[in-house]
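ZP: hey, is the farnesyl diphosphate complex queued? I don't see it on the tracker
AM: it wasn't, my bad. submitting now with these inputs:
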Amino acid sequence: VNPHPQHIAIIMDGNGRWAEYHELPRIEGHRRGAEVSEDIINACIDRRVPYLTLYAFSEENWNRPSDEVEALMELLGLYLTSKRQKMIHEGIRFQTIGDVNRLSPFVREEVERTKELTQQGSNLTLTMALSYGSRQEIARAFQELIKRGVKNITPEILSQALDTRDLPDPDLLIRTSGEYRISNFLLWQLAYTELYFTETLWPDFNAYELDKALDAFSKRERRFGMTSEQLRELVG
Ligand code: FPP
């Protein structure tokens, strides 16, 4: 039986379809999705999960219709403005991965302020992937290492050049809405992560669904390439 995961990463998918089923504009699905994110952040704090990483906006999402992109950016900015005090109060340390330089000045400013003001948080490290693409992140890391003149690039050195350098690798990845893909999210970091997929759309996800995922995780055998027997010897 596995202990609780230290790091959960989530691909929050299905906002658009949820809105469609309810005959609402897509942005209503995202708005509802943002509320669910808050519930799940709180649930992770309650369950003493120290790291949560949310895929809020991918590099590829820039290709969506411009009104949806603008609405999502506004939602993100407003979310940070309105939740910042609460984050500080709850001991949430906010950070981001991805190419934040592409974000609008308003959102970037809110991101930077929120990072600064929540740096002392020690209950949960909340990482939002914003304008994030894993291949782009890996390419940026290589460029950085080349610039620094690093010749002997090992997995450890590459890990330390990624946006996630301060995070442990995720133990559990959750993707909602019945899609079975990784979609350019944390490709390097997910090497030994347990994957959990659910049909539930993100706006319908909740703490009960999270507990189902945690329960499934607790029953998985994580071998990291070893045999079951070796593992038993390791834990004694
Ligand atoms: C996927 O649904 C979701 C996104 C592209 C954005 C995720 C953003 C949020 C949950 C809101 C912002 C979050 C916070 C915490 C402020 P989709 O639109 O791809 O759904 P579909 O596949 O049904 O169309």
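AM: back. Residues 12-17, 30, 33-34, 37, 54, 56, 61, 75-76, 79, 202 surround farnesyl diphosphate (CB under 6 Å).
ZP: great, adding it to the tracker
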